[in-house]
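Class prep. Protein, please:
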Amino acid sequence: MLSAYLFLLLAPTLSVFAASSDDWRSRSIYQVMVDRFAQASGSTTAPCNADNQVYCGGTWQGLINNLDYIQNMGFTAVLDQRPRETERIAKVIEQIWISPVTQQINVSSSNPDGESYHGYWQSDLYALNHAFGSQSDLKALASALHKRDMYLMVDVVVNHFGWAGSPSEVDYSAYNPFNDSSYFHDFCQITADDYNDNQTAVEMCWMGDTNVELSDLNTTSPSVISAYNSWITSLISTYSIDGLRIDTVHNVQPSFFPAFVSAAGTYAVGEIFDSRPTTVCPYQSYVPGVLNYPLYYSLTSAFGSTSGDMGALADTVTTMRSTCNDTTLMGSFLENHDNPRFPSVTPDVAAAQNAIGLAMLGDGIPIVYEGQEQHYSGGTVPANREAVWLSGYDTDAVLYGYIAKLNRLRNHIVSVADEAYVTDQAQVVYQDNTTIALRKGSASSPLVGVWSNEGSQGARYNQSITGTGHAAGAALVEVVGCRNVTAGRNGTLVVAMGEGAPK
C-alpha cells in the first residue's frame, strides 16, 4: 500500500450506544463466535473439536477477559507532532460482532446437526443463552467495550426459530413470544434451486433439515412485525448495543426491515448469502449495510491460486460500485463462520495477506473473523469454527501483526489524514493476470494498493501503475515494506513486486 500519510495509530474517541451508519463507517469489526473465543477460566488447553458441533465453553466473561487481544491487534501509540492528534485514543479493532444472544432450543449432542452453540436456533427472544452467561455478564461486556471506546454489534435472527424434530410436531407453545402456529408459515422446504429462481419460496418456506427444522416466521404479519420491533428496541436499550448484524435477510421480505432498523435506532448490516451483485445490492434500500458476498467470492477466486481470475475481481469491484447504493457501508470480509476459511483453499500466507488487504482497505467496513489472524484453516462448517483459545492468543502470529498494520494505516487515514477516505469509493486503476491495483481516498492524495496472486514463490519485478491520482514527484511511503517511493511523470508509480507480497 502506497500512501502519502505517516504511518501512525491514532483514532478518535467516539460516542457509543446505538451508533449511526456514519459512526460505523470508519470502524473495523472483529467477529466473535462466543462459544469458541474464550473460556472464563482463561484455559488455552480446554478441548474443543469443532467437528463434534457441541458447546465448547466460551462465554461473555471470557470475552471480557481477552479484550486486550482484540483491541491490541496492532495497539501502538505513536506521538505525532500535531498536539490535537496526540490527544486521540490509539486503537485498532474498534468493535466486535458477537453471536446471537437469545435462548436456544435444547438439542441432543447426538443430533447429526449438533447443538445450538452458534446461536441461530432460538426459542425465546426475551431470555438469554445462559451457556454464554447471565444478563449482568452481557451488560458487563457492553460496559467493558464502551470504556475502551469500542462498539458492540449483536447478531439477530428474525427469519426463524429452531425445532429439533419433524415440522409436523412443532410445539409452538414453547416459543416466546410467537407461541402459536398462526405466527408462522405453513411448512414447505426450501431447495437449493429456489435461491436461483423462486424468491417466493425463499421467503415463505423453511430452512433446515430433518434433524433441525427452522420454523419460518410470517414476517408480513402485523403482529409479528410489531413484536419484533418492540423486542429489538428493548434489546438495544437493555444491553447498550451499538449495531446489528441481521441473519438470513434474503429469506425475509424486504419491506420488513425499514421499520425494524428504525426501531433499533442503530446501523445494521444484513446477510444476503449470494454471489450476484444484482441480488445483493437491492437490499441496501432496506438495510443500511449488507455483507459484500460478491466481493468475498471474487477475492477467494482471484487469490486462491496463482491462476486466479483477476479480471473477474476487477469487474466485481466496478460492478458493486455502480450497482449498490453505498459500498462504503457494506461489510467487507474474507472469512466468516459460514464459509470455508481462506487457508483451506490455499495455505500460502502471501495469498492470504493480499486477499485480507484488499478486503480491509477497499470499500466498506472491514470484518475479521476470529482465528483468521492465526491463519486457521478449517474448511466447510463445522470445521471453520475452531476455538481461538487453542492458539494461545499468539500475538506474534504473522497475520495478527499484518492485520494490525492494516488497521493502523486505515485508522490513521480516517482520523488524521483523509476523512473523505471512508466515503470515497475504490477504483481499479490497473489489472492484469496476476496483479490488481486500487486507489481510494481524496483526489489529491489517495491510498494506492497493489495486490498480487503470485504467492510466496512469486518472481521479483517492477510494476508501473498509472492513474494513481498523485502528482509527479510526490513523496510516498510503501507501508508493508516501509520504503520511500517517489511518483514519476503524471503520478506513475513504479512498484517493486516480489514473493507475492502486497504493496
